[in-house]
Every structure is written in C-alpha cells, then in structure tokens.
Design goal:
Elements lengths: L1 E6 L2 E3 L11 H6 L8 E3 L7 E6 L7 E9 L2 E12 L2 E2 L9 E2 L2 E14 L3 E22 L5 E23 L4 E16 L1 E4 L10 E3 L11 E13 L3 E12 L2 E2 L9 E2 L2 E11 L5 E8 L7 E6 L6 E5 L4 E8 L2
Antiparallel strand pairs: 1-4, 2-3, 5-6, 6-9, 7-8, 9-10, 10-11, 11-12, 12-15, 13-14, 15-16, 16-19, 17-18, 19-20, 20-23, 21-22
C-alpha cells in the first residue's frame, strides 16, 4: 500500500524586480495579497490531490543442485521477482501512477574448488521483465527537464559471470572477475522525446534500445599480500584494477548521454595489532585520477547536458577497535 499527496502553488514577488513599483496594484487585482508575497491557487481542487493504491504479488524460487563431487557443484534455478508500483509526485501529471514490475529469472551455475587453492564460480542467466520501471526524461509544464517513471512492456537481460580466486602462496591471493551483460527493451512503445523537441508529439518506438546504466563488459582484478610479524602484528597490502565498458544513461539512446569506458586503480594497506583488537586501514582510490561520468542527463533541445562526475583521487585513514 502506498499513499502520496501533491500540490501546486505560485510564489509571486513583484518587489524582486527592480523598478517594479507599478506592479503591486496589478498583482492585487489578480488576487495576490497587497503586501505580497503570498500563495495563489486559482482552483485548489485542481492543484491539490491525494493518491492511494495497493498491489500484491506472490513470487518464488525453485533450485536444483547437483554435487558432482565434494568440491564441485552445478545448479539451475528459476525464480520470480516483483517491485511494487508507485506515483510520479510533484507536478500534478494527468496519469501520475506507474504499474508494478515483474521479472522471471533463469540461471545456471558452477562452483568448484581445486586442491584447496583455486576457487571458480561461473553462472549464466536470463531475466525476462514485464512492465520494467524506467526513467524517461521529459519537459514539465514550465519547460524544466524532469525524470518520469514509466513502464516498458517487455525487457530482457542475458549475460554470464566468471570469477576465480587463487591462493598462489600462503601469503599471496589473486582474484579476477569478468561479467557480460546484454540488456535491451524488447517492447517499449511509445515515448515522446520532448527534450530534443519541446513541440513534438511524435511517439518513438524504443524497442531494441539498450538498458540504461548497463555496461556490456566489466573486469575486476585484485592482488592481496599478507605477512605476519611477531611483535608488530599483521600487514595486508592490496591493490585492485577495474574496467567498465561504455554505458548509456538515456532510454532514447542519444550520443550525448553515452559515457565512455574507463578504468580505476585502488590500493590499501591494513595493519592488525598482535591481539587483532586494533585495525588501521590506509587506502587510496582512483590513484591514476581517471575521469568519467556516473550520470548524464539532457537538459534542452540545444544539446546542454548535466551530469555527475566520478570521485577524484581520494586518500583515507580508518582506525577500528574491537571490544
């Protein structure tokens, strides 16, 4: 169950404009307070409302495991998932509600350990979405860009992931992970791109466009070295490298909202006291000062774009005490 309320009002201040002394009588004639500022709502019933709705769903999961040996296992699963509907509040839209999202997930996988030093996990999956909740950029009534949530009729995600962890020596551990994702809106009709053309009423079929914020390829590697000293405690030096493919941030699949691929290098040094009660962690993130976007949004028909950049080179020191 969800409830929401929204209202619109106008804030008017003729004194905010230099030389506007002649305006107060006009504002007063229109219904504004004589001393301005105030709120004006010509039709309170049309500019204020409450919304309420409820949804229900039963989901489940079936899993089949097969133990090939004590150190190897294969599995297959089918599961369903659900995300409740909701409201687009704040702008008194004509159709303010969006529907629930449902997904059926199919997955097969393999897990194994070899000689107690190498662990391998692999899985492949297929997600079949119905009414996926999607952010669509639009211009509101006062021509400001906003993100509306709408339902894409059908979407699919397929991919696989492989991860391996190797205890190379008693002190050195190596880890690598690779994932591949291919996601698209298979039936998404239709949407109007008012950002590109505020006067347009042309509906676009977005079927076949890639899912937003879903890079096709991702790589992560890590090396960790631990050494124990007698009186000084334990030290762990760790370094990681990650790479993320290009990704799209707009359902209309525009060139201006396509972020390039990027990589990142992090490192940390952790010290444990001999009693293990004290832990000190020194870390550095984005050591090579790579720059990328973690969000991109079109603002108008002239090509203006806003976005958030990734975190810059960052150092940190953390002290933990267990008691």
């Amino acid at each position: 169950e969800k409830e929401g309320s929204e209202s619109n009002y106008i804030v008017a201040d003729p004194y905010a404009v230099p030389g506007a002394d002649a305006l107060p009588p006009v504002w007063e004639a229109l219904g504004f307070p004589a001393d301005c500022c105030g709120l004006l709502s010509a039709d309170p019933a049309a500019n204020k409302r409450k919304l309420k709705d409820d949804w229900d769903n039963v989901s489940g999961r079936i899993v089949l495991d097969y133990l090939h040996s004590d150190n190897q296992m294969m599995y297959a699963s089918i599961s369903s998932g659900y995300k409740a509907g909701g409201f687009r509040l704040g702008s008194l839209q004509e159709n303010p509600s969006f529907d629930p999202e449902e997904v059926i997930s199919y997955e097969i996988g393999y897990k194994a350990t070899f000689d107690d030093v190498l662990r391998v996990n692999a899985s492949a999956y297929f997600y079949d979405y119905s009414d996926m909740q999607v952010l669509v950029p639009v211009l509101n009534d006062v021509n400001l860009p906003v993100q509306e949530i709408v339902n894409a009729d059908e979407s699919e995600v397929k991919g696989f992931e492989v991860e391996a962890t190797w205890l190379a020596t008693d002190n050195l551990t190596l880890m690598a992970n690779y994932s591949y994702i291919d996601g698209e809106y298979t039936n998404f009709c239709c949407a109007v791109d008012t950002i590109a053309d505020p006067d347009s009423n042309e509906e676009q079929d977005l079927s076949g466009n890639p899912l937003t914020q879903a890079p096709k390829n991702k790589i992560f590697t890590n090396a960790s070295y631990s050494w124990v000293t007698g009186e000084l405690g334990e030290f762990i030096l760790s370094g990681s490298y990650s790479w993320v493919d290009s990704r799209q941030y707009d359902v209309f699949n525009t060139a201006s909202t396509q972020a390039d691929s990027y990589f990142r290098v992090d490192a940390s040094l952790t010290w444990f006291s001999p009693s293990q009660a004290i832990r000190v962690i020194m870390s550095g993130k984005n050591l090579t000062e790579e720059e990328t976007w973690v969000s991109l949004n079109r603002l108008n028909e002239f090509g203006a774009v806003s976005g958030y950049a990734n975190e810059p080179l960052t150092y940190s020191l953390e002290v933990q005490y267990a008691f």
